[in-house]
Amino acid sequence: xxxxxxxxxxxxxxxxxxxxxxxxxxxxxxxxxxxxxxxxxxxxxxxxxxxxxxxxxxxxxxxxxxxxxxxxxxxxxxxxxxxxxxxxxxxxxxxxxxxxxxxxxxxxxxxxxxxxxxxxxxxxxxxxxxxxxxxxxxxxxxxxxxxxxxxxxxxxxxxxxxxxxxxxxxxxxxxxxxxxxxxxxxxxxxxxxxxxxxxxxxxxxxxxxxxxxxxxxxxxxxxxxxxxxxxxxxxxxxxxxxxxxxxxxxxxxxx
Length: 255
Hints:
It is built from 13 helices and three strands. It is mainly alpha-helical.
């Protein structure tokens, strides 16, 4: 696979402007071509780029489609994003120690962080969903935006190489890479609740799944956060992690 090592302090000159509204009638490959043009990405494998936009629900509804779902690209993109942001943070924040750099990266690659970048390029308008997922408004769900953004980065990496994927990501995430937030604000609610519980009662919080309902394309988890055996928060989400994060945020306000 193509690769290029070493951090880059240079910001990409690649356009990161938001994409124009997408006509609803475009097929997956046409949608991908329009998105690539809007992002000034010179893709050479449009079918691969289209695959990055295909949610698993579309494959369930269209089993004869030649396009695979984006799950394999999501796996690859996750690793590329982590390395690209590690490169950039290491170069841009030479006075930060390993702990602070790790916290910065965790905030960037979190579901909230990646969904924010997906919103910045209006990625939701280009998702290819099945009918049920469309009715459930999956295209606006943060966890779906996160996974699709990872798949998109995976496709850029496979097609154009690591340097192109890294530079595009660094340009897109420049505001977050350069900001100077407090270390506390970089930590997830689960991490903050863990530290608070350990400090106050000497034991970690626990999470209990109350229910899991709905079909695969519209799964809903309900989870409780407990500290010292007491329920302090309840959260819901499309997956257990999302529900636990919400429950932890509620628990923090009460703890």
